[in-house]
Amino acid sequence: MALWEAVLELADDHLVLGHRVSEWCGHAPMLEEDLAMPNMALDLIGTARTLYDHAGALEGAGRDENRLAYFRDERAYVNCLLVERPNGDFAQTMLRQLYFAAFMEPYWRQALHSSDAVIAGVAGKAVKEMAYHIRHAGEWVIRLGDGTEESARRMQSAVRALHGYTGELFEAGADAGGVLPDRAALRGDWDRVIGEVFAEAGLRQPDGVPMQSGGRRGLHGEGLGHLLAEMQSLARAHPGAVW
Amino acid sequence: MVSETPLWEVFIRPRNGLAHKHVGSIHAADEVMAVQAARDVYTRRGEGTSIWVVRSADIVASDPAQAGENFEPTADKIYRHPTFYEIPEDVGHM
Questions:
Q1: Domains of chain B listed by start with CATH number
Q2: What CATH code is carried by the domain that includes residue A77?
Q3: N or C: which end of chain A has fewer CB within 10 A?
């Protein structure tokens, strides 16, 4: 296990979630969100691109961002399971975004001081993007959770559907040799943000939910294969294609 | 959804020192969501440093039927335009 693999985990998290969020493009419940979703997707994919190039350079085997994104199969993807969860309804998408951003914001804040200049550079940009994602998704979670009977029911069922994927966020993956933040240490920050939003939304974190894990070892849910098939088909049908 | 969601007018200030300018409108449930929606819809290309939103219903507009009495009396007061003043060279671009 090496630093490049740890950077790859981070890149996969961002690309897979970015692709998921982009699936809303043209399907969001209102025009305003139809623009907001691709905004957020592009934040994530932009971060992924830099991280892939960096992982490829660290690996030293000549793989660039396109090679890593489009020519690895499901079992070689090392994203956490949360980010590949299907969009479900708007409540589920917003909660997934909140769960991820509430983890990444303190992550990047620590990574600002990384000894790796690329990581520190990415962190400077991403920390602001994640702060906005927390705000955007958080305000929706509050309004849906504390909204109508129907929206509250959907929000609560989103919590039931996704909560079991939050534990893996804090699990250690490939050894980054201290260059990347320690995931487990971010638990307090994450709990605080989620706790504040849930309190306002009238939501409760369920107890005793078994935590799913395996993404960092390439063990994924059914959905990731479908996502990759769609995302990779063009690049594989026309290798080396450019705009 | 849109029928239950109020309309807001969006004003963006492009740079410090300039005034907020009306750029369009958005739908949002409340003021917090309105600022977010305005950010997502109208500042995607670095257009702004500040956002104002105001409920469209709170805008008080002049009556088009009174356009004549409101605006026509100024038509023959061309001396109000600053083109009649010589500006000294030293002042430069105003």
A1: 2-88 (3.10.20.520)
A2: 1.20.1260.10
A3: C
Assess if residue A223 is contained within a domain. Answer: yes
Q: Chain B: nearest CA to A32, how far in angstroms?
A: 6
How many structural domains are present in chain A?
1
Examine residue A107 and state whether it is found in any structural domain, yes or no. Answer: yes
- Cα separation, A164 vs B28, in Å, equals 32
Distance CA A212, CA A167 (A): 7
Residues of A (36-95) whose Cβ lies below 8 Å from B = 36, 39
Establish if B53 touches chain A: CB-CB under 8 angstroms: no
Which of chain B's residues have a Cβ under 8 Å away from the Cβ of A39? 40, 44
CB count, 10 Å around CB of A181?
A: 20
Task: Please indicate, yes or no, if residue A120 is contained in any of the structural domains.
Answer: yes
Residue A44, min C-alpha distance to chain B (Å): 15
B60 to chain A, any CB pair closer than 8 A? The answer is no
Q: Is the dihedral of CA A192, A197, A201, A207 positive or negative?
A: negative
Chain A's closest residue to B37, CA to CA, is A32
pTM of structure: 0.90
Per CB-CB distance under 8 Å, the chain B contacts of A35 are: 40-41, 44
ipTM score above 0.90: no
* Residue-number span of the structural domain to which A89 is assigned: 3-237
| pLDDT tens digits, A41-84 | 999 999 999 999 999 999 999 999 999 999 999 999 999 999 99
Is A144:A64 a contact under the CB 8 Å cutoff?
Answer: no
B8 forms beta bridges with B26, B55
